Amino acid sequence: MRRIVAYLVRFAVILVGYIVASMTASAFLNILVLAHLGYTPANPEPTATASLYFSVPFVALFVAYFAFMPAAVVILIAEVLGRRDWLFYALGGAVIAVVFLGFVHNVGDTNFDVTETNARLAVIGAGMVGGIFYWLSAGRWAGSWRREALPDLER
């Protein structure tokens, strides 16, 4: 029974971590776009600030949707190997972003493809930020379910 509870708790932590990672990657992309358009915190536009309340969660839905499969693979590898370092998750987020960019390039829709170098780097940066925030919220305890599920061998 303890094993099942440990698995369910870890699954819930992973799910919350994925939501946090998607939201922060979305916020990073939104802030980069606003900065590119000339928005500065010293001269705030009320419409730009208010639009973040809607656009960050909305873009996070797309981030979560398109990153789900590669993120599931990275999370599974991290859980099995018990990786708990922030660099693994930052590089994992970059790999997830590169897989996404490869996917949208291979779809063949020219309106959906990311072709500008700055935009590609922004997506990769958002993946890295999402990976770091996943580590902050869930990755620091990767593999903890194995310690709780395995019998104590020191007895």
Question: What is the gist of this entry?
Answer:
The protein is mainly alpha-helical and 155 residues long. The protein contains five helices and no strands.
Description:
This protein has five helices and no strands. The protein is globular. With 155 residues, the protein is mostly helical. Helix 1 (2-36) packs antiparallel against helix 2, helix 1 runs antiparallel to helix 4 (117-137) and helix 3 crosses helix 4. The chain has helices at residues 2-36, 46-81, 86-107, 117-137, 144-149. The longest helix has 36 residues, at 46-81.
Describe how the helices and strands are arranged.
Layout: H1 2-36, H2 46-81, H3 86-107, H4 117-137, H5 144-149
Helix pairs in contact: 1-2, 1-4, 2-3, 3-4
Order of helices and strands: HHHHH
Helix-residue proportion: over 70%
Please report the number of helical segments: 5
Average pLDDT reading: 87
Largest sheet: none
Total count of strands: 0
Q: Which class of secondary structure composition applies to the elements?
A: mainly alpha
Query: What Rg is obtained from the alpha carbons, in whole angstroms?
Result: 18 Å
What is the straight-line distance between the termini? Answer: 20 Å
Tell me what portion of residues adopts beta-strand conformation.
under 5%
General form: globular
**Uncertain regions: pLDDT < 50 for 5+ in a row?**
none
